[in-house]
Fold this protein.
Amino acid sequence: MLPPSLRPWLRLVAGLAALVVVGLGVAYSGHSEPGRVDRWVVDPTADSVGPPWRGVALAVDFLGEPLGAAMLVGAVVTGCLLLRSPRSAVFVVAGPGIAVVTATLLKSLVGRTIHGDDNLSYPSGHTAFLTSLALVVALLVTGRLGIGRTAGSLVVPAAALVAGTVMGWAQVALGAHYPTDVLGGWCTALAVIPATAWVVDRTADRLAERATDAGRRELR
């Protein structure tokens, strides 16, 4: 799932992203107000977007809701199965799934809130989901098409940046998250996906080796 030409670069990005997630989490732990960076970007507690952009923001937000997310993942998984790539299908489910679970756990640990004590906000799970799915798809396309290191180093981050920016804009515009929550969600995806790809590859390789060994024993 990780093209060999991109592995060193992705490991570095994952490590840096993890540091950002932890740093922001520590900085905003237990906070219920926007920070200086948040106020500099926009007033994050105001539902300020109006028609027609509010409809666009709501449509994007839907993609991070359970039904919308399931539809997106289901579509990509179907494509993988039609291409006879079960490993890719597993990656499509596991990558975004682990990213969302990680974001949810971090929310409880950090305890940052918006619009009341019941609304945990850091990091943004919606942003983590869409960014992680975009990363997974970009990695699969890069590997399947045999895109080189230079092109892959442009395609993969571009996909993550576009997805994170679009969903991040929607979350901030709707007042659902602070800008730093969005950054935390984006970095969560960048940290989780390379690690998930490595685990999927290692697990699939081991299962394939066991199946090969079992076949050889039967032939004996």
Notes: DSSP finds eight helices and no strands in the chain.
